[in-house]
Amino acid sequence: MTPDHFQTWAVRQALPLWSENGFDRDRTLFHERLDFSGRPIILPALRLMVQARQIATYCRAALRGDHPAGEMALHCLAEVKRRYHRADGAAGWVFSLSPDGRPADRRRDLYGHAFILYAHAWAYRLSGDPGLRRRAGDAATELETIFHTPGPGFMDAVPPHDAIRRQNPHMHLLEAWLALFEATGEDIYRDRAARLVTLAITRFIDPASGLLLEDFTANWQPLHPAGQNRAEPGHLLEWSWLLHEYLRLCAPRDADSIRQVAVRLHSTALAHTAPIHPPVIRNAVGQDGRVVDGGTRIWPQTELIRSLGMNHSTAVSSGVIAGVLAHFTTHYIPPHLNGGWIDRLNADGTPAMDHMPASSLYHIYGAVCDLTDGRNAGHKDAADSLSHSEP
């Protein structure tokens, strides 16, 4: 499979599937799951995060001319604001809605709030509506108030469900700040992004192993003793890409040192792939390098594809990309699913789920965009790190 074939599959099958079968026109909201026949699976709650990811994806697809569902996505965003924002009278966006339209889970979740900002960025780019730009600014201020902590970073949730601080929502918040900066040009988003980049470089990454760790204490120390913490190679690839995006958009003074961090994250992730060719990104490894979850999901493979796409014009051969895409096609997007996918595989390669989650489309289409738009060409250092890691 070539990048063009991957794009064709996404444009002609995946995007139509989720804008048709995957969209509830009665509620103007997206379904969270489809079964393997493409039928919606009705759930007791619809999460804010899933709605926001789908909105952003279809706004982006409309901007690229890949799918004409931009107006549908904008209408969905308006409905999401009406239903989720301050739905219980308090500031912020509720976590999820029940089928009757009332809040199912009232907690405020940093992950979901990051994605609603991301959705606003793409919706504003598509529509040019100054009201969306203002609402994004209000939502950003609201987020910083709700999740505020005395030190760097933010609370994961309010009220908190535990004392753990996690890198993952901060990663997606960085993605939202960068998307908003690119959409609006407002310096406040660049400054917010810079603070998260500093947090990631100084606290998230273990200097000894090069792994970006997942869980931390309230003062951003690794949650477990040295050598016993968990890392997800897919997140290393996401952070590497985000740091390159930060360099592209923000041109910081310390660009060289940030680029070195991005390259090391990329090469470290590849060093922890399964010992086969093409590389396969496993779910999780320990800080000591042992595999703690040998299963795979679709999203880390798309992050690998996106990383390869970033490097395609330099040291990475088209044969490597073709091999990764062929493996991806065989194991995750079989033809009989007609635009759907297998989201999880066990360590032995057997499917681990009996349905398709909508949340993966954001990862899949992101990989398509970065493979085919040529925007990320020219990162030779990252490309060299791949060539050094090939088996």
CATH class category: Mainly Alpha
DSSP strand content: 5-15%
Distance between the termini: 21 Å
- Stated plainly, the CATH topology is called Glycosyltransferase
The second-level CATH architecture is Alpha/alpha barrel
Detailed description of the structure:
Keywords: Isomerase. This protein is mostly helical. The chain has a single domain, classed as Glycosyltransferase, CATH 1.50.10. 53% of the residues lie in helices and 9% in strands. It has 13 helices and 16 strands. A 3-stranded antiparallel sheet has the order 4-5-6. A 3-stranded antiparallel sheet has the order 11-12-13. The longest helix has 18 residues.
Task: Please outline the helices and strands.
Blueprint: H1 3-20, E1 23-24, E2 29-30, E3 33-35, E4 46-47, H2 48-64, H3 70-84, E5 96-97, E6 103-105, E7 108-109, H4 110-127, H5 130-146, E8 157-158, E9 165-166, H6 167-184, H7 187-204, E10 215-216, E11 230-231, H8 233-250, H9 255-271, E12 284-286, E13 291-293, E14 296-297, H10 298-311, H11 318-332, E15 344-345, E16 355-357, H12 360-372, H13 380-389
Antiparallel strand pairs: 1-2, 3-16, 4-5, 5-6, 7-8, 9-10, 11-12, 12-13, 14-15
Helix pairs in contact: 1-12, 2-3, 2-4, 2-12, 3-4, 4-5, 4-6, 6-7, 6-8, 8-9, 8-10, 9-13, 10-11, 10-12, 10-13
